[in-house]
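Sequence only, no structure available. Ideas?
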Amino acid sequence: MTCRPPIIIIGMHRSGTTMVTRLLMQLGLFAGTELEDNSEAVFFLKLNDWLMHQCGAAWDHPEPMKYLLAETGAENLAANCFRVAMASKLTKNYLGLWKYLRIRTPGNLDIPWGWKDPRNTFTLPVWLHLFPDARVVHVLRHGVDVAKSLQTRSMRGLELCTAPSPAAQPVPDLESCLRDRITDSVRCLSLEGGFSLWEEYSEQARSLVDSLGKCAMEVRYETVLEQPTESLRALATFCDLPTTDEAILECSKLLVPGRTFAYKSNESLVSFAKRHADSLRANGYPQN
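Reply:
I predicted one. Tokens follow.
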């Protein structure tokens, strides 16, 4: 049996990682059987989330991960935990029953496989202990569009939590109040909060891409939408997907080019972008 290194998709939340993952799945990538709504494999998402919580980090507060990664002993221990999980029955959630009974662990897959989770951006160094030859795809999107998308999602969550209850519904008790989340991310309720989070993810991801050389590929959300055929062909080649030009053409028809640089239609967002021009430029988006 010829085993393949995984395709690990990294990048900031709301940057197009879901879009790219679904396109790769259309072209032949196995990304898991049990998936969240955003095409994140539940098995890998839970491991990433567990590791971040071990050092007091979270998806919208990733900074503490740098302390874990700075300590060789802690990083090795985390890698051992991941290794144990990869040999456990929990992999059935990723593989599905038939694949699990046949090969037991994702590392034995003989087809293109991998997983998407923005948290990979900070947990990747640990995963590379298990899969040193992994192929890494970084999806990058303009920081102001990301910040606005995060703000919209966070505000929606806040509105749902603060909506008045129907008159017939009793006042919630303390237990339910403490259980419910105020919003998806308090940090991302503001553009500044979401943008600073984009900076953290982008700097981390681009540093990883630089260090991995030919084993990593960076794709821009905007380029995929504006040049779909060329982008998909490059991705398919990098990921070694058994696809065809016809499949790539059909896949490209699913994309909507008009979704790029949405911030430009909003004067306040354009002003926000100008105030953060240096950071945007440093992370691959010069003023235009």
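The radius of gyration is 20 Å.
Hope that gets you unstuck.
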